[in-house]
């Protein structure tokens, strides 16, 4: 089975990379980009039957730093 | 004083740290990240700068899961001293020994220069050799030194006098210009600037020496 973990900076944490991407989009002529937030997508190839709680532990322990990041799990 | 310097794949300030501690009179042991235990009788663990595990995933995240880090956490919980510099600071926040997190510099650039660093407290074994309010000349070299703390944590750090150092001028986006923080028991210090790179006249300055000397004195006295 496969699962996909999305890791994003929490709301309220300034994202300097997202800001730079926003400015770059404006600079190459795309008007109206009000905000950009950059995150990570992590694809996991897992043993069949791995439960979502276990994936949650992977996120809590390693994949996300929950001080500044939030995550969502998508089982594919 | 007996000190351990942790070595991860990608550490590159480990030998500088050893030299700085030895100069101050410490007996220094280099410890590989796969070891599960620290050498017996270690007073201080130093987590050095570098790019442990290539900074993959997040700076310090993978190092924080290594076997030796569990021993470092036990050492800290038993009241031992821990110093994390640069990548070492990132590792200590990832282990949870220090609060907050370190993000990409707000200017997105790697900063490498010698800066004015303000001493905020003398109340720790790391900073007792300095004068609060005094300025040190210490090098910084990092891409992810932007210290993030929410408003309540930032206020608590100030209330509890746990901000050890601040940048004299904004450098990397750190909240309140925080450059170094202490744990609740004041025995764990994480800082982005490199005191071990300021211990010899040939480095261009020796303002880092007082930290290592004070640590050695603190552990000899204890």
From TrEMBL, chain A:
One example GO MF annotation: ATP binding
Superkingdom, natural source: Bacteria
TM stretches of this protein: none
Keywords: ATP-binding, Cytoplasm, Ligase, Nucleotide-binding, Purine biosynthesis
Main location group: cytoplasm
Tagged with keyword ATP-binding: yes
Hydrolase found in the keyword field: no
Pathway recorded for this protein: Purine metabolism; IMP biosynthesis via de novo pathway; 5-amino-1-(5-phospho-D-ribosyl)imidazole from N(2)-formyl-N(1)-(5-phospho-D-ribosyl)glycinamide: step 1/2
Reaction catalyzed: N(2)-formyl-N(1)-(5-phospho-beta-D-ribosyl)glycinamide + L-glutamine + ATP + H2O = 2-formamido-N(1)-(5-O-phospho-beta-D-ribosyl)acetamidine + L-glutamate + ADP + phosphate + H(+)
Compartment annotation: Cytoplasm
EC number: 6.3.5.3
Cellular compartments per GO CC: cytoplasm
Enzyme class: ligase
GO biological process annotation, one example: 'de novo' IMP biosynthetic process
Function: Part of the phosphoribosylformylglycinamidine synthase complex involved in the purines biosynthetic pathway. Catalyzes the ATP-dependent conversion of formylglycinamide ribonucleotide (FGAR) and glutamine to yield formylglycinamidine ribonucleotide (FGAM) and glutamate. The FGAM synthase complex is composed of three subunits. PurQ produces an ammonia molecule by converting glutamine to glutamate. PurL transfers the ammonia molecule to FGAR to form FGAM in an ATP-dependent manner.
Family: Belongs to the PurS family.
Subunit note: Part of the FGAM synthase complex composed of 1 PurL, 1 PurQ and 2 PurS subunits.
Name of the protein in question: Phosphoribosylformylglycinamidine synthase subunit PurS
Lineage: Bacteria, Pseudomonadati, Pseudomonadota, Alphaproteobacteria, Rhodobacterales
UniProtKB/TrEMBL annotation, chain B:
Any one GO molecular-function label of the UniProt entry: ATP binding
Domain of life: Bacteria
Subcellular location: Cytoplasm
Gene Ontology BP terms: 'de novo' IMP biosynthetic process
Keyword list, A-Z: ATP-binding, Cytoplasm, Glutamine amidotransferase, Hydrolase, Ligase, Nucleotide-binding, Purine biosynthesis
Protein name in UniProt: Phosphoribosylformylglycinamidine synthase subunit PurQ
InterPro entries cross-referenced by the UniProt entry: Class_I_gatase-like, PRibForGlyAmidine_synth_PurQ
